[in-house]
Amino acid sequence: MLSERLLKDGRTLCIRNAMGQDAEAVLAFVHRVASESDFLTFGPGEFELTLAQERAFLDSLLVRSNEVYLLGLIDSELVATISFAGGSRPRVRHLGEFGMSVRQQDWGCGIGRMMLETLIAWARSGDVVKKINLRVRTDNARAIALYESLGFSRECTLRGAIRIHETYFDNHLMTLWV
Ligand SMILES: CC(C)(COP(=O)(O)OP(=O)(O)OC[C@H]1O[C@@H](n2cnc3c(N)ncnc32)[C@H](O)[C@@H]1OP(=O)(O)O)[C@@H](O)C(=O)NCCC(=O)NCCS
Hints:
By secondary structure, this protein is an alpha+beta fold. The protein has helices spanning about 25-35, 50-60, 110-125, 140-150; strands spanning about 1-5, 10-15, 65-75, 75-85, 95-100, 130-135, 155-165, 165-175. The chain has a single domain, classed as Gcn5-related N-acetyltransferase (GNAT) (Aminopeptidase, 3-Layer(aba) Sandwich). It is built from four helices and eight strands. An eight-stranded mixed β-sheet has the order 1-2-3-4-5-6-8-7, sandwiched between helices. Helix 1 packs across helix 2 (about 50-60). The longest helix is centred in the middle third of the chain and has 15 residues, at about 110-125. The structure holds coenzyme A (COA).
């Protein structure tokens, strides 16, 4: 998949599938966003994959029909990622969950919306994925506004889903049938 989208500030966002050779940039990005936001399921230094494991993981996704890892690049620099993992068994292959991040300096530029629109288009273009799930902290107003504006609805609230130090946070489970 390859798409080029014009941002409101005039820059061009290029969205394409990640490959093994992107592993180093992806790991650097993941470590960066872990320290820029408390809304992820991992904090600084807590993402555990090695370079070799990340490379193998990204390469393995290129042949999957219900998993994808997309990169958002501006002038070849990685600014956003979105990844979706579907179930592996027949009864759960039709659904899966995504996670996404945009680097903090580019929040509010429309990049998150374009990444998610591209993921939804990818799901609709195949005949495997029928339902996209996500979990989002109930206090992540920016992300929730984005998801609702693209048609996701709240199915339930998962209490105490995230623990950071001694504080517990709830997650909404939000879903979209595609
Ligand atoms: C959540 C995140 C992915 C959104 O990406 P983004 O590029 O900033 O989002 P966009 O610029 O496309 O904005 C999308 C929508 O968010 C909402 N939004 C933007 N800024 C907002 C703000 N300050 N407060 C509330 N909502 C806001 C708007 O509804 C906007 O839609 P619009 O196109 O009508 O303006 C990004 O902020 C991020 O990576 N955050 C940290 C990690 C994270 O929370 N990941 C999601 C975990 S579930």
